[in-house]
Amino acid sequence: MARFAFVTLPTWTLGTLMLLGVTINFANVVGRYVFGYAFFWAEETMVFITIWGVFLGLAAITYNGDHLSMDLFSAAIRERWRAVVNGLAVATMVACCLFVAMQSYQVVALFAHAKQVSVSAGIPKAIPHAAILAGFALAALAVVIRIRSYLSGKF
Q1: Which residue, 46, 50, 69, 114, is most buried by CB atoms nearer than 10 A?
Q2: What backbone torsions phi and psi does residue 36 show, to the nearest 5 degrees?
Q3: 135 touches 59 (CB < 8 A)
């Protein structure tokens, strides 16, 4: 169930978002060069789609333990100390993810309260900024769910 929520669902959502972005881009190109009319909202919308894609992908990457890692020194550390180092890394990662999520929540709440919208597409600014909140909150949850793998360093 967790694999579905953190890997399968985000992967399908990412694919859907990419197809949506390509469709908007294609329609904009056809509109501009065939009909002489461009969708003024297309670029901004595609940027917001990309932002959501990046932060949803963060959850899948975190769940799978696919982050970039530097194990030059950790490979030489004895197993007991490696668990301590991995524990510190887990605590740091969860703390940083939660910190960013809390800060993002405040920004999203401010945008929602002010009812600010984007310049060309008129999309509420809380929507693209909520991607950061969702991505980092899901990443923290993914680390907690896979804590044994993170502590042992085995994925």
Answers
A1: 46
A2: 70, 25
A3: yes
